[in-house]
Design a protein that fits this description.
Elements lengths: L1 H20 L3 E4 L6 H10 L14 E8 L2 E2 L6 H9 L2 E3 L20 E4 L3
Antiparallel strand pairs: 1-2, 2-3, 2-5, 4-5
Length: about 120
């Protein structure tokens, strides 16, 4: 697991460097989540599973700001597509059929995770 976490951490570093180079203003959101916190999110409807990669330190939520305001789901698209291009899995695809990727954003657009199982 440590090797997966290390690889993920370096992928995030590269991704954040790309965000900075292209002028995207981002702040860090939640990265690690305890079992208790995950259970609470599930009960509150903020998560749909107990198997979140946040619990394995293989996911991070990023806050994107555009013109000083928290971005809409659609404004995350360039970041999500870049994340996928460098080997990650983007939460903006969650709940969306592949044939609708170009027109719809899923329910977790600020979520960036490892593709590692």
């Amino acid at each position: 697991m440590r090797k997966k976490q290390t690889a993920f951490a370096w992928l995030i570093v590269d991704f954040l460097a790309w965000c900075r180079a292209f002028g995207h203003e981002v702040t860090l959101g939640e990265a690690y989540r305890t079992e208790e916190q995950q259970r609470l999110y599930l009960q509150q409807g903020k998560s749909k599973t107990m198997l979140s990669k946040h619990r394995d330190r293989l996911a991070v939520d990023l806050n994107l700001f555009v013109d000083g305001k928290l971005a809409s789901a659609e404004q995350y698209r360039p970041l999500g597509e870049k994340w996928e291009a460098i080997g990650g899995r983007w939460g903006g695809r969650f709940g969306v059929k592949p044939e609708h990727y170009s027109t719809q954003i899923g329910w977790d657009s600020n979520h960036f995770e490892s593709k590692e199982a």
